[in-house]
Design goal:
Mean pLDDT: 76
Number of helices: 9
Strand content: 5-15%
Structural class: alpha+beta
Shape: elongated
Helix content: 40-55%
Low-confidence stretches: 148-153, 197-206
Radius of gyration: 63 Å
C-alpha cells in the first residue's frame, strides 16, 4: 500500500509544468503510486478524485512522449529512404552512361576521334598472283604447261616516203556577188516639240495664296503658337488650318481665321493670337494657308 502521508507532496510534485523534466522511469513510478491510491476504497473521495486526475495527466504525458518518439523514428526512416533512393538513382544513371559508352559503335568512335576508317582485307584478298598460281590444283598446272604458247603478231608502221607528191586541192568555185539595189530610206518625220507654258509673274502688290514653306522664307517675324497650359493639363490635342491675310504694302497681318477648326476653341485662339503677330517682307505675300497640329509636346506647323 502506498504511503498516504506523501500523497499531497506527490500531487504538488506532479503538476503539469513539472512533468516535462521527469524521466520516463519517474513517470512510471508516479503512475504506479496513483494507481494504488485510486484502488484503495478506504480513502476519502477527494483523494481518489485527485489521484484519478493525476493519473490521467501522467498517462497523457507518457502517450505524448511515445507519439513524439514514433514521429522522430518515422522522420529518420523517411530520410534514410530518400537518401537510399537518391543513391540508387545516381548508381543507375552512372551504370546506364557506362553501358552506353561501352556499346557505342566503332565507326562512330572513329568519326569522333578523326582517324580514317581502313577496311581490313580478307585472307583471300591478300593472296598475291604467285600464291594464287601456287594454290591452284596440279591438274590445272599441267594444262597450263601443255598449252602451246601463242605468239602475238607485231604490227610495224612504215612511214610514208617523202618523195611522193600530195595531190593539190581543187580551186574554189567563182562566186559572183548578187546585185543589191540600193534604196533611199524615207525621210524622218519631224517630232513635235513640247513647249512648257511659262507662267506669267504675279503683279506686284497682288500676290496669291502662298504655302507655309514659302511664307516662312519671306517672314521677318514669325512667333510659334504656344500650347496653352489649360489644354496641356487636360491633354487636349487637335489639328486645323488657319488662313492669314496680309497687307501687301506693309507686310503686316490684317486678319486671321480658322478655315478648319482644331476641334477646341482654346487651341484655335492660341493659333490665331500667334499668327496675327507675324510680319512679312512688303509686296511678297497677301494670303498664307497654315496647317497647324497641337500635340502633347507642343505646336507643329
Amino acid at each position: 500500500m502506498a504511503d498516504r502521508s506523501n500523497f499531497w507532496k506527490m500531487v504538488d510534485r506532479t503538476k503539469p509544468s513539472k512533468l516535462r523534466v521527469f524521466a520516463d522511469s519517474e513517470l512510471r513510478d508516479c503512475e504506479d503510486y496513483f494507481l494504488e491510491i485510486q484502488s484503495a476504497s478506504t480513502l476519502p473521495p477527494s483523494e481518489i478524485i485527485t489521484a484519478s486526475e493525476r493519473l490521467a495527466l501522467i498517462r497523457s504525458e507518457i502517450d505524448l512522449r511515445h507519439s513524439d518518439a514514433k514521429h522522430r523514428q518515422t522522420q529518420r526512416l523517411a530520410r534514410w529512404a530518400i537518401a537510399f533512393g537518391m543513391v540508387s538513382m545516381a548508381a543507375a544513371i552512372t551504370s546506364g552512361v557506362a553501358q552506353f559508352f561501352a556499346h557505342k559503335p566503332t565507326h562512330e568512335t572513329l568519326l569522333v576521334t578523326g582517324e580514317p576508317i581502313v577496311a581490313t582485307p580478307s585472307a583471300k584478298e591478300l593472296l598475291t598472283p604467285t600464291q594464287e598460281l601456287t594454290a591452284t590444283s596440279p591438274t590445272a598446272m599441267l594444262e597450263l604447261a601443255a598449252a602451246p604458247s601463242t605468239v602475238t603478231p607485231e604490227l610495224t608502221l612504215t612511214p610514208p616516203p617523202e618523195d611522193i607528191p600530195l595531190p593539190e586541192p581543187p580551186p574554189p568555185p567563182d562566186i559572183k556577188p548578187e546585185y543589191v539595189e540600193k534604196t533611199t530610206p524615207p525621210p524622218k518625220k519631224p517630232q513635235a516639240q513640247k513647249f512648257t507654258p511659262i507662267k506669267a509673274p504675279q503683279a506686284a502688290g497682288r500676290p496669291g495664296t502662298m504655302s507655309i514653306s514659302t511664307a516662312k522664307a519671306l517672314a521677318t517675324y514669325a512667333p510659334r503658337p504656344q500650347y496653352p497650359y489649360e489644354a496641356r493639363s487636360r491633354q487636349i490635342t487637335g489639328r486645323g488650318v488657319c488662313v492669314v491675310e496680309i497687307n501687301a504694302g506693309s507686310g503686316s497681318v490684317t486678319g486671321a481665321s480658322m478655315a478648319s477648326s482644331s476641334g477646341n476653341p482654346i487651341l484655335d485662339n492660341a493659333a490665331l493670337s500667334a499668327f496675327r503677330q507675324w510680319r512679312f517682307k512688303p509686296g511678297s505675300v497677301s494670303k498664307v494657308r497654315i496647317p497647324i497640329t497641337f500635340t502633347t509636346t507642343g505646336a507643329e506647323y
